[in-house]
Amino acid sequence: MGSKRRAEERGGTAGAKPAPRPGKAPSRLGYADRSADPLHILLFVLPLVAFYEATLFLDDLSGVRETVAAHELINRFLNAFGEFALYLPGLLLIAVLALMKVARGDAWRVRWKTIPLMAFESVVWAIPLLVIAALLSGPAAVQVAADAVPGGGGGLASIPLLSRIALSIGAGLYEEMLFRLLMVSLGAFALRRMVRLGDTWAAGFAIALAAMAFTFYHHVDGDTGTIIARRLVYFVAGCFLGLIFVLRGFGIVVGAHVAYDLFVLVLLPGDSGS
Question: From CA 93, how far away is CA 95, in angstroms rounded?
């Protein structure tokens, strides 16, 4: 009886587990927590950033930088750094994730098996995107990602394979950085603070607003019916990607976007990509 009382006086019952000290990660985190951890996200996207930025050095892939408009939009804000600004969006993304990890204040502990699991989950999330596109405007709608590809009218086969891979990665990285990591996060924050919305409503409105911006950010050609159908695909896909971001984090939404674009630009038959 006396020992139990002494335990309670020290801050809890005799059978209670002590709370983890600040700066220490729990001894065992589940996959869902690890995959949303900024450190694991950084390790997941780092090879993608490295591959895309490396393509900017190659003369025959110079058109990639203009095609990934999100990269260009971010780059415009960094033009004060001169030619080096071309590579700053990637460095900025890495810095943001590192700062997010520092702000959390937990341990920099890596579970390497989490990275391939994140890649697998990303592919799983990409499948509904393909289904959404097909259901909303027919089988050809799964090729909406090809709208922005230079020379797309000649078919995907006319575009070098490495360029198509780079475009898929660049779009996934920098469109998600712009529309989800920045717009959804800041939009939800502003709606909570300025309009006093609850977390769910703020996230929902922020997702919808970012999806609308995502819709009109893409250039679409064709007759009125085609334009409406593809705008609808982009809006619903933007909402779906926003939902993935809110529920599963930045790493998974980047992976899902990249996986979708790789399917559209790389795996589909080249002669059907107009």
Answer: 5
